[in-house]
Structure formats: structure tokens, C-alpha cells
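Internal ticket - ligand job 692, PMT:
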Amino acid sequence: MDILKGKHIVLGVTGSIAAYKSAMIARLLIKSGAEVQVVITPAGKEFITPLTLSTLTRNPVISEFFSNRDGSWNSHVDLGLWADAMLIAPCTASTLGKMASGVADNMLITTYYSMKAPVFIAPAMDLDMYQHPVTQRNMETLRSIGNIIIEPASGELASQLIGKGRMQEPEVIVSALEEYFSRQAQFSKKKVLITAGPTYEAIDPVRFIGNYSTGKMGFALAEECALRGADVTLIAGPVNLQTRHPGINRIDVKSAQQMYDAAMEHFPHSDAAILCAAVADFTPAVTSDTKIKRKGEMTLTLKPNPDIAASLGAIKRPDQRMVGFALETDNEQNNAQDKLERKNLDFIVLNSLRDEGAGFGYDTNKVTLIDRNGSEELPLQSKKDVAKAIITKLSGLLFCIAFMFMPLKTQAQELNPTLSINTSKIQGTDKDVFTSLESAVKELLMNQAWTDYHFTEKERIQCNFNLIVNKYDAQSGKMECELTVQSSRPVYGSGYNTTVFNFRDVAVDFTYTEQDRIEYTSGITPDNNLTAILAYYSLLIIGLDFDTMSPNGGTDILRQAENIAASSQSLGGGWRSFDSKANRYTIINDYMNGTLSSFRQLQYDYHRKGLDDMSSNADRGRATITESLNLLSEAYQAKSTSALPTLFTEIKKDELINIYSSGISSERSKVVELLSRINPSLSNDWSTIMTQ
Ligand code: PMT
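stdout (C-alpha cells):
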């Protein structure tokens, strides 16, 4: 295994009879390709000579704060930054104690305190010393701050006693490092979001609705992901646990709503989410500001909390993976399978309260991993080992994605377009050129990989491109056209598609001659207008679609459209800021301009939070849409000259009239007032909302 190749290892050696084995450790590390710097304590030098270690490592051994050779300072700070790992083997009880209690009286301990890399400790001592509560407490202290203890073996000790305390063999120690680094490589550069623990739903300032979750399972998952090199965001309910690994960014929350908000914020930037929290499904409809007094019977009205897993599942991108948990008391398999589907999970971890030692609070768990291909029942084991099994399964899925996401430039990707070219205005022209144009445009729209995300067949975005040719010069191939571009997205839980973009571009001029190919290279501004326009609208459609799925989720893609608009100024009409307030240039500029940030947020709030919710609860969905229209009003106020709010009302006219065909009249009149202000030309349509 060459996982240690090129790694910088600080090997700490202390005064134990096992110090002779450090020569073997140094040799194995060097053989694996690592660079080794030995730091030895004064007592260590009594057991092994620095000459042996420096010869093996081809590096002078450091022992003192100043070099004996030239009096220069041996910088423990620099060593702390240089190292990829520090291994202290053997580590005596005395060094363990100094490390745990801050006695930095030799070079090895100061190096330990400056260490930025993981620290491995291989204790070596006599049986009684090892068992002593002080040693055990010191080891626990070091473990609790993230140091990795390589447990000593049992066997005959230097004292001739038999028991635990003998330092592990060099091969075992080096393989512990290898295992660490190979696990770390697995999830390197991956971002994982984890929810853990219970949520507390406040009844009044002193009481809450909660549950028995301790967070142990979720924290074990976070630790395991971090050990494998992931950047972990751990959203934790109220628990009594510490996080050890520096790769874990912990966000503490109390209520389900707070957990939901944090999860929605971080999910778009995550590669995977593991929903392990025991989230309260209901919360008090009203929270009292003061302690509720005991006065006879009391009824508590509860309202449903957001379902975090289902909400993330609904905005999950094709490149993301999600793992959920199911805690069941009966009909376990069926309930878990139902949750797998309903919450759009990749697999679900079922634990049953019927299994002894499983579920809340225990250090153990007994789970079954269920996906769409079947299930795997695991034995009762520590939550740490359960976490390992879950993360191993997840890593397989993430690896598949990495494989799928290799650029597949010739494969149909994000768009599912229909294309029509209308030539009725240019009678009598040879039509072959348009047949050729149609297939060239289709080829680009359907086969271009616009992003790095791989869309499955059914995830592609429905869109229409309709080109009307107004003028055509057969000699030069110059065409003057209009292009209508329209895109839609499915509404969750219904067969209905909602229009996201619908725009008529009247300044589409370009030159095309038969058999020309239209080719677009990502990041390079096209030098002909037809490619620029098609690339611009394709990226715009994809970016808008991503925005509807997560707040500002389309930023990276929309920036590419913005760049095309900015660098295509000389290509023809429609690209210049002064041409019109509703041309390509101003559309993308207004959209990406921070002034209209509420309009971007509207895309998500209206579609995901509002429309998608309507199929399960029409009243709640409509109320959310009404709230989201405030963002439209804000955008209008922020820049009343922008065409975007008006365009939105045009696109959504029929849908809005339909949505408000029911609902309370005060809500309707508020909406009519708002829509009439933003788009007075449709006042008659808006007034029908009141008369339906
Ligand atoms: O914390 P410990 O003491 O170690 O205990 C671990 C555990 C038992 C809490 C854990 O293993 C577990 O089973 N967690 C999920 C418990 C749960 O809420 O299950 P559920 O079947 O009600 O929910 C199904 C899934 O939806 C879960 O992934 C849950 O996180 C998620 N959910 C549920 C409700 C909600 N409003 N939002 C959610 O995200």
C-alpha cells in the first residue's frame, strides 16, 4: 500500500524498553515512502541511540530545544505545521501524563502541543501502570480531544508480569496509520450534512416536547465521516456530547424549525445528507411567553413541523445522496420502505424499538440497511461500528456519482427540448438550409453537457425553442428571427408542470449556411451569435431550474450565462444594456444583481415551498405562495424599472388565477392589489380573482 508515500511523519520516542521497536517503525515508514523526523526525549536516548534512528530516517534526530551542532533553535512550531501525522511510539505513562496535563518540559511535548496533524499514541508500560486510574484517565483525556490511541497488546512484559501494556508490534502500528490515511482519502473533498439528536419544542419558557435521543448515533456518523476526510456539517439538537474531530463543523439548534432552516441552508452545498435526528413531528401551535400556571385540565394544540428529510429529498440534485433513519415500533420493513420512497432517500437505516440494545441512548444499535434493491440486516454492534457500515455503503454510492460525473460530452444531458423553426414568412426559399439548421440546433441543445451534473432521462428539463424566421438572405446566409424560449418544471406530487421561463426574444440575428455546425465550449465566449444565444438560453433555463430547487442553487450556471451576455456585446442586437429593458443582457444582469435578490429567493419560495406543497395541503401551499409574493413586491420596489417582476406575472397569470380560485377573500384582495400594482396591463385578469 503506498498511502503513506510522501507523508511527513513526526516519530516521537520516549524512555521505554520498547524504544528499540521504534527503529523498526522508522524503517517500515521509510519503506512505505514516508519522510520521518524523529523527536526523542532525554530518557528515550537511554534506550536507543539517536545515531540508529538518524541513519534509518536519513534525518538528524531532534532531542533538545537547540541544536547541539550550531546552537540554532529546533522549531516545534514548524514541525507541527510540517507533519501529516505525529506518532508517539513507545509512549510512556510519564509522557502520557505530561501530554494530558500540560507539562511541556521537553522537545517532544512542545512538538505535541504545536501539532496541527492527527496524533497517534502507542502506549508501552507495565501492567499495573497501564491499569492505574490516572493512566486510564490521561488516555481518556487525550482520546476525548481527538488523539488516536493504539491500544497496547497483552503478553509478557519487561517486568515479567503477564497482561496488557506491551506496545503493539511495529507492523500493527504502521498499519493503523495506513488505515487512517486510506479512510481519510475516501471522502476527501466531500461535504456531508448530518442531523443528530432530538429537537425540543417549547411549550413555555420552562417546558418542552422532546424525545429520548442522545445524539450518540448521529455523532458516531459525523466522527466516521470526518475520519474518512469529509467536511462535516453536524446539525445537533440539544445533546450532552462533544465533537472531537476538527473536520466537524457543529451547529447547535433546539427546535425542528431551527434544524430545518440550518439543513435547508447547508444542503445545497453538500454531497450527501444523513438524517439521523429524531425530529419532533409536532410543535405547540402557540408558545406561551410566561410559565403556564397549573389550573385544572389543559389542552395543548399541536401543529405539524416541517419534514426535514422530505424537504431535502424534494430538492435533492442528481449528484447528491441522502440517507434517512426509521425508528419503528411495528410494521417495521413496510414503514421504512414507505419513508425511503416518500422522502426520496437513497437508502434508509431501520432500527426497531423492539430490539434489545437498539435505538435511543444505548451505545449499541441493531439496524437493517434498506435500499431499492433489498435489505441487509446487521448484528447488534457498537454505534461506532454501525456508523462504519453506513458510511461504507454511502461511500459506494458517492463513488458511483464521481464515476458518473466524468465529463460525458457526447451524451444527452440536462435539456429535453422541442424545437420548431417557422419559415412561413419567407415564402419561396430553398428549405434545405432550415432542415440543416434544425438538426444543428437540436444537436447542440440535446447533446451538449452544459454542466458537470448528470441528469437522468426523466430529470431533464422540459423546454421549447421556437424560432420564427422573418428575413433570410440566401446569398450571405443572414437570418433575422424571433425566438421564443420556454421552460417548465414538474410540481412535486402532481402531474402538473409549471412554467418557469417564457420569453420572446425579437432580436435574434445570425448567419448560417447549410452544413454549418454549432459548437459550444464551456467557458469560451462563442464568436457567432447563434451559438451565443443558444448557449445563453440553455444555461439560463438550467440555472433558473436549479434556483427553484434550492435557494440560489443556480448561481454557478447563471454566472456562465452572465459571462456570455457580458462578452457578446459586439455580436448583434439583444446583448447591449441600452437596447431594451427586457433584452437578454438586462434579464441576466437584473437577475444576478443583488438588488433583486428577493426575486431570486422568490423562485425557490414560490415553487418549492409553495407550489410543491399545494398537492399535499392546498391551504398551506397557497398561504406560502401569498407570503412568497411579498418577495415579488420587494423586488418590484427595489427596481421598478426591471422587466423581471412583470415577466413573472405574465408567466404565472393563469396559474395565479387558478391558485386563488379558492382561499379567503382578504388574501385574494391583497394579492390582486399587489399584482395590479406590478402589472397594471393585466388588471382585468387580476380582478377575476375576486369574482371566481
Ligand atoms: O440519538 P441516539 O440516542 O443515539 O438514538 C439514535 C436514534 C434512535 C435517534 C436514531 O438511530 C434514529 O432512528 N433516528 C431517526 C428517528 C426518527 O425520527 O425516525 P422517524 O422514523 O420518525 O423519521 C424518519 C426519518 O425522517 C429520519 O431520518 C428523521 O431524521 C427524518 N425526519 C422525521 C421527521 C421530521 N419532521 N423531519 C425529519 O427529517
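Auto-summary: The pocket of PMT is lined by residues 195, 197, 213-218, 256, 275-279, 281, 305, 307-309, 324-327, 339, 351, 359-361 (CB under 6 Å). The first helix runs from residue 20 to 31.
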